[in-house]
């Protein structure tokens, strides 16, 4: 992915990365996942956003960087959430990556999440392995050490292909995207009703398959 892609609006980037591959490189291994659910946060006028009212703090600093920088924060003091900055410098929009579909290295993903081999998981555990922002960060070993990194030059990156057996496997461009209200932002007054959550229709790894 190129810089100009991430300089689009948060909404456009949120929809544009669906179906693309989120790839985590560590321990000399690449974990490949497909992005299946996102939310857009549209900057200083969005009451659901951390920067509402232009709250530029040490915590929100990554959002004010150029599009394509990583913003990781904690919820409940224990779960990490992965965001990517969108738009241009000092226009602090972003994309929350809410869910991914695991593609390879399932045992490593499973061990990170459950400390078990993938084949030993229940069907419930398999379905829930990466279907939420905290879950995917645990599965991909994403934490605040990645905060502020440029996703174009990071051990965590987004691509429209991955390599398997020396062949490029490209993403499916024929996906159907649905939208709904964002999740767990009831505090955001009228902004809680904006249809800024986007997901791939009927993908089983989406946290909540409910549109509108």
UniProtKB/TrEMBL annotation:
Tell me a Gene Ontology molecular-function term this record carries.
alkylbase DNA N-glycosylase activity
**EC class of this enzyme?**
hydrolase
Q: Which GO terms describe its biological process?
A: base-excision repair
Write down the Gene3D superfamilies for this protein, in alphabetical order: Methylpurine-DNA glycosylase (MPG)
User: Which EC numbers does the record give?
Assistant: 3.2.2.-
* Zinc listed as a keyword: no
Keyword line: DNA damage, DNA repair, Hydrolase
Classification via InterPro entries? Formyl_transferase-like_C_sf (IPR011034), MPG (IPR003180), MPG_sf (IPR036995)
> At the top level of its lineage, which domain of life is listed?
Bacteria
Keyword set includes Hydrolase: yes
Q: Which family does it belong to?
A: Belongs to the DNA glycosylase MPG family.
Name assigned to this protein: Putative 3-methyladenine DNA glycosylase
Q: Which organism is it from?
A: Romboutsia weinsteinii
Upper taxonomic lineage: Bacteria, Bacillati, Bacillota, Clostridia, Peptostreptococcales
